[in-house]
């Protein structure tokens, strides 16, 4: 797992604005495919993304007698994660791509995540699964939180051993195991030609066809992340915070 820690303004790892002519939207959460899901321990809701991919949402509470709530629908147009004070857990939205070329013939080099808001120490990222069964992930810790809508780019080069021209599935995850109380909302997930040199830096969107795409792996690497668990419980970000009214 490649981890990015944003210690200053979260915009240092974000790119403002998005060119619709040079981006692939996997989901903008505008389709009312499923409603609120409460997860005393774990729950799954199924539906279809705005781009027609099969979509499932998982929510898991890591402590007994607690609830992680997630919802997405046309009324909100967001994928959201919410956990109250004293609650720890995680959630993720999964897209079955069936061997899709995420590079769009070499014109895309990064995932783009649209953020509406996220609390202090919120942790989120992407897991991608190649058709060979190789799992790899990249993530961002929003050390100072975010209240202004923006975008986060995660470069394909941060993911190990994945053939992005033949992707089986992609998941957007939120980790609330390292903080008690967390609210986060996301407006979209897709791919883009990013002008960033690294996921933690700043830059501008690149030009179509001017993207540095990592070559397909010759030998699949072992899956180092357990599906759904993602190793989130052991990331080390265990600071606690009190939920403010």
TrEMBL record:
Organism of derivation: Candidatus Tenderia electrophaga
Signal peptide: 1-23
Pfam family, one: PEP-CTERM
Domain Ice-binding protein C-terminal stretches: 218-241
Regions crossing the membrane: none
The entry's keywords: Signal
Source domain of life: Bacteria
Name the UniProt record assigns to this protein: PEP-CTERM sorting domain-containing protein
């Amino acid at each position: 797992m490649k981890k990015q820690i944003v210690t200053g303004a979260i915009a240092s790892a974000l790119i403002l604005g998005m060119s619709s002519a040079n981006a692939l939207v996997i989901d903008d959460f505008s389709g009312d495919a499923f409603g609120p899901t409460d997860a005393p321990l774990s729950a799954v809701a199924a539906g279809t993304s705005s781009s027609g991919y099969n979509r499932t949402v998982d929510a898991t509470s890591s402590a007994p007698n607690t609830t992680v709530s997630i919802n997405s629908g046309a009324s909100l147009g967001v994928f959201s994660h919410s956990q109250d004070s004293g609650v720890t857990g995680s959630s993720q939205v999964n897209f079955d791509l069936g061997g899709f070329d995420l590079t769009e013939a070499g014109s895309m080099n990064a995932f783009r995540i649209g953020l509406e808001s996220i609390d202090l120490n919120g942790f989120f990222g992407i897991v991608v699964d190649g058709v060979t069964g190789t799992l790899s992930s990249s993530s961002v810790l929003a050390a100072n939180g975010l209240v202004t809508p923006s975008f986060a780019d995660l470069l394909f080069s941060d993911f190990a051993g994945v053939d992005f021209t033949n992707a089986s599935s992609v998941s957007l995850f939120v980790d609330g195991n390292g903080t008690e109380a967390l609210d986060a909302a996301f407006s979209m997930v897709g791919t883009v030609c990013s002008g960033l040199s690294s996921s933690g830096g700043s830059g501008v969107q690149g030009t179509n066809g001017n993207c540095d795409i990592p070559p397909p792996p010759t030998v699949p690497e072992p899956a180092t992340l357990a599906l759904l668990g993602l190793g989130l419980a052991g990331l080390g970000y265990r600071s606690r915070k009190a939920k403010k009214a």
